Amino acid sequence: MNEIEQAEQELIGEFQAFDNWMDRYQYLIDMGRSLPPFPEELRTEEHRIHGCQSQVWLATTPRGERLDFQAISDSAIVSGLIAVLMRVYNGRLAAEIAASHPDFIKAIGLDAHLSPTRSNGLRAMLKAITGAAAEMA
């Protein structure tokens, strides 16, 4: 099992520990609150993710064969989605990111419990992450 698959399994287990979606949303929001500060100088159009209802910025930094990501949103739930994606993809090998399939999103239940605009934003963030990985790999 590679690092991405391991992180996905951990997240699935964490979300399954909650009995209802109100608790899962709260956990998602709490995860978003733990995001590290995002540098103001990176809040540019170049780093903005389009397709999200809220404002999202994502910066990618290559580190050897790995990719480091920084991201932030002005929405609490979207910040939680960012935190989930960072747990899975941040610091991972570009080749593994490019080859991965985000099946954990369905396993967690996010595909069925996000509004259409948040789902679009999640897809846009995933596209940016996997696109950067594919370019590097």
The biggest sheet amounts to: 3 strands, antiparallel
- Helical stretch count? 7
Number of domains: 1
User: What is the helix/strand order?
Assistant: HHEEHEHHHH
Shape: globular
| SS strand fraction | 5-15%
Average pLDDT figure: 95
Radius of gyration: 14 Å
Class in CATH? Alpha Beta
Cα-to-Cα separation, first versus last residue: 19 Å
- Kindly identify the CATH topology: Sufe protein. Chain: A
Could you please describe the fold and organization of this structure?
With 137 residues, this protein is α+β, with helices and mostly antiparallel strands. The protein has a single domain, classed as Alpha-Beta Complex (Sufe protein. Chain: A), CATH 3.90.1010.10. It contains seven helices and three strands, in the order H-H-E-E-H-E-H-H-H-H. Helix 1 packs across helix 3, helix 2 packs across helix 3 and helix 3 packs parallel to helix 7. The protein is globular. The two termini are 19 Å apart. The mean pLDDT is 95.
Reconstruct the topology from this structure.
Blueprint: H1 3-16, H2 21-33, E1 56-63, E2 66-73, H3 76-89, E3 92-93, H4 94-99, H5 104-108, H6 110-113, H7 116-136
Antiparallel strand pairs: 1-2, 2-3
Name the features.
137 residues, alpha+beta, Sufe protein. Chain: A, 7 helices, 3 strands
What's the short story on this structure?
The protein is α+β, with helices and mostly antiparallel strands and 137 residues long. It has seven helices and three strands, in the order ααββαβαααα.
